[in-house]
Amino acid sequence: MNMRIDDFVAVVKSGNTGGDDGAFRVSGQLIKELKKFSAADLEGAHSNAGLEFSKHAHGLAVLLSAKAANPNCPLPQTLQQSEAFLNRCSAAATLPRTLDKHLIAVLCVHLADRLIQDKAAKHGIAFMQQAIALLAENPHQLTEVHYLLLRLCLESKNYRPALDVLETNLYDIVPGKSSFEMNALVGYYYYGSIILAAHRFFRSALQYVSIVFHIPNLVHSSSQYAVDAFKKYLLLSILARDHGVGIPRYFLRQVESQMQVRFIVCFVMYELLEQERRFSLSFGVGFFFTNTCSYIMV
């Protein structure tokens, strides 16, 4: 893709976005291209190009995502502008026609990454809470932003907002024009298990990490999540003296190629844990784990 910032602004103003599948459906490639522009160009397009929220909300969301992804754009200014944008979204009776909920979630992703990169995670927690309130139609819906809130809470060691979320019974996924991102679903249960374990809720943490294994196509779409979740499952099984719901065999076969030699050690441990559960035996797996975790947890 080869574009000028003026071309981008012109197409946004024309409204010729091609509908839901048009050029300004946020994609990684589009953000990658836009973030190459200078901070001055991006700021000029955002503040001085005459883009209006009611008509061009999709273009503003794209620009803010690009600013968040560009390390040369001042973070405090980008965060302030993103907060103002989110306030406009919250105040509107309905979101503008071209502004997909997924578009707001993508802005949240880039902003969360930037906040963590700049070691300012605590400053984004309230933003993510507001985004969740905007995107969810009721308190029991999981959005594509929940896992970002958990990430920021982990990075800032401010766990109360995360625990409030984890204590809520979520049984639905927020609907939208776009498909729900796999990483958002996996990330919620993965980061949730870490936070619960940090507060010594080992059984609950084990239940969360066990859910990760039953999410379709996990290994193919989020291989690092899969490997890390498997290792945490082993640790939590020992700490909780429980074995969750078990790991599907197809998952074990798929994750083997990701872990290489370390998988052999992990698989032996898993087999021992399964036999302990099945036959009420005790092989001292906890002792074995303590002496090998520095090897397999890397």
Structural features, described:
With 298 residues, this protein is mainly α. The chain contains 16 helices and 2 strands. The protein has helices spanning 5-14, 28-34, 39-47, 53-69, 75-91, 101-117, 125-135, 146-156, 160-166, 182-198, 202-212, 218-221, 223-239, 249-259, 261-279, 285-296; strands spanning 141-142, 172-173. Strands 1-2 form a two-stranded parallel ribbon. Helix 13 runs antiparallel to helix 16 (285-296). The longest helix has 19 residues, at 261-279. The radius of gyration is 22 Å and the shape is elongated. The chain starts with a helix and ends with a helix. 39% of the residues are buried. The model is unreliable at 18-26 and 279-298 (pLDDT under 50).
Number of separate strands = 2
Q: By helix and strand content, what is the structural category?
A: mainly alpha
Main beta-sheet strand count, sense and barrel state: 2 strands, parallel
Strand order of the largest sheet: 1-2
CA distance, first residue to last residue: 38 Å
Strand content: under 5%
Computed Rg: 22 Å
Helix segment tally: 16
Provide mean pLDDT, rounded. 78
Low-confidence stretches: 18-26, 279-298
Spatial shape: elongated
- The residue fraction in helices comes out at 55-70%
Brief account:
With 298 residues, the chain is mainly alpha-helical. It has helices at 5-14, 28-34, 39-47, 53-69, 75-91, 101-117, 125-135, 146-156, 160-166, 182-198, 202-212, 218-221, 223-239, 249-259, 261-279, 285-296, and strands spanning 141-142, 172-173.
